[in-house]
Write a structure and sequence with these properties.
This protein is an alpha+beta fold and 375 residues long. Helices cover 37% and strands 21% of the residues. It folds into 2 domains: 132 residues, Creatine Amidinohydrolase, Chain A, domain 1 (3-Layer(aba) Sandwich), CATH 3.40.350; 227 residues, Creatinase/methionine aminopeptidase superfamily (Creatine Amidinohydrolase), CATH 3.90.230.10. A hairpin with a 6-residue loop joins strand 15 and strand 16.
Length: 375
Amino acid sequence: MDALDKSMEEHGADGYVLIGSSENADMRYLTRFITTDPVVYIRKQGEQGVIIVSQMEYDRAVREAAVPAMSRAEAGFLRIFDEEKDRWRALARMIAEYVKGPVLVPPTFPYALGIAISQYSRVHLDAGTVGAIRAVKTREEVTHIRRVQRATETAMGHALDLIRHSKPRGGRLYLGGSALTSERVRLAMHELLRSRGCLARETIVSCGEDTATPHIQGRGPLRECEPIVIDIFPRDEESGYYSDMTRTVSKGEPATEIREMYTAVRDAQDLAAASIKAGVAGSAVHEKVVDLFRDRGYTTGLEGFTHNLGHGVGLEVHELPTLGPGGDALRAGNVVTNEPGLYYPGTGGVRIENIGVVNQKGFRCLTRFPRELVV
């Protein structure tokens, strides 16, 4: 009995139901079918799941989906819709008639559809079983993530080359006669990634005091001798898998405070990498980093170390497991980030992020990109 069957049994459900496009990571994982339109996935307890699609998508689903496909007509939707004259009620009846018993749905299930199904059968809420299953990666999944990570490193290298070859003028950086801006660096990385089959959005290229806000995207001219945080998390368009990587650099020597913060963050990352192992709680690794920062005189909370040490990466850029205060025991096959950071308004911020695979012996880092502050 797998985890999904076990969850159905525990809830007294006869079937698990999911609805959405392939932008829903659970749907893509369970069906491996890529579509922009919502489809229905149903798995009865002890059976293989099926995907119910429109007639227009049926032939493609038969060829491409990892599970058997049914058309809506075959599943009874058209017949039921003629009787109900309401799409949600018809969809609910179709699901209820197919499952023939209580239904288990994920936390992200549409509320309106859940209410409609409850008129025909009991509906139980799952705690997120598929997300927990996705957290343990197969070798194939790790290969997908490694591929996008290599493209990410190429893009990061290109960004640092732009900064490295720039020339300071009046405190600002210039390249080829024009200002080197956050937008210019971001676009250069996105174009390179696109040429390698990857899509990047909301890439962070922040500078100076802006770096004290961890996820500020950054805008305008980059400046010499100030921290520049570059955080990029592209997705491979073919496989759908993400990677995630951050580097903090400076064109010229930054302030002493930034240099000391960088050393502390680098040491914290090394400590975490040596501590990550199957069976160790993500919360315990996070706490070790908190202790290191505290010993170095840095705070946690609203300033200093303000976020979790890391998170899972896969078909979502942020998924299970968590390396933070609520993190459970890590499992072999987890792919997680290791990204300590320090942030102080008026001074700036430093973050370094690698990604790797958890195994029984420790942490196999997939990131092969150097850490250097001054470029």
